[in-house]
Design goal:
The chain is an alpha+beta fold and 161 residues long. The chain is built from 4 helices and 5 strands, in the order αββαβααββ. The chain has helices at 16-19, 68-74, 99-103, 110-116; strands at residues 46-51, 57-62, 93-96, 126-128, 141-144. The longest helix has 7 residues, at 68-74.
């Protein structure tokens, strides 16, 4: 007697996207949002001031660990941060007004120095805002936003037709 294969009906699983009740990000790491800063706890405020391109001074109280790019963007100051704070551009270039305050900062990394070489209006006290993390030592720091930024992209180097 010949044996015939018989398929048994198995319940079909729902596609993975239908099994999830809440939307998930496509990244395994926590996403960073531009301009996301943590409000300082009472008594732990750090003061920082920005002088914008028009010469207007803006004073803020921030938390330890916030970076200058996020502080500026959270407060609607004109700082682009084209690379999202990954130290891959120079659009968050700032100039530290007080050389003594600049000396209290950690030395810039090689990557930061490479990007600073592309910055408009580079000075001896220039830094990338995304790389400057606020600390108690930097309380009272004043930074100036340069009058222009330089946003270089691959398309800038393609041959013109």
């Amino acid at each position: 007697m010949p044996v015939t294969a018989r398929k048994t009906a198995r319940p079909r699983k729902q596609p993975v996207w239908k099994q999830v009740d809440t939307p998930r990000s496509l990244s395994a790491t926590t996403g960073m949002q531009h301009g996301h800063i943590t409000p300082p706890k009472p008594g732990e405020e750090i003061n920082v001031s920005f002088i914008d391109k028009d010469g207007e001074k803006w004073d803020f109280q921030v938390s330890e660990g916030d970076n200058l790019l996020d502080i500026a963007q959270a407060n609607d100051l004109e700082m682009e941060g084209a690379c999202g704070g990954s130290c891959a551009c120079s659009t968050c270039h700032v100039i530290v007004e007080d050389p003594d305050m600049f000396d209290k900062m950690e030395e810039p990394s090689d990557d930061e120095n490479d990007m600073l070489d592309l910055a408009f209006g580079l000075t001896e006290t220039s830094r990338l805002g995304c790389q400057v993390l606020m600390s108690k030592e930097l309380d009272g720091m004043v930074v100036r936003l340069p009058s222009m930024t330089r946003n270089l992209q691959a398309s800038d180097f393609q041959a013109k037709k």
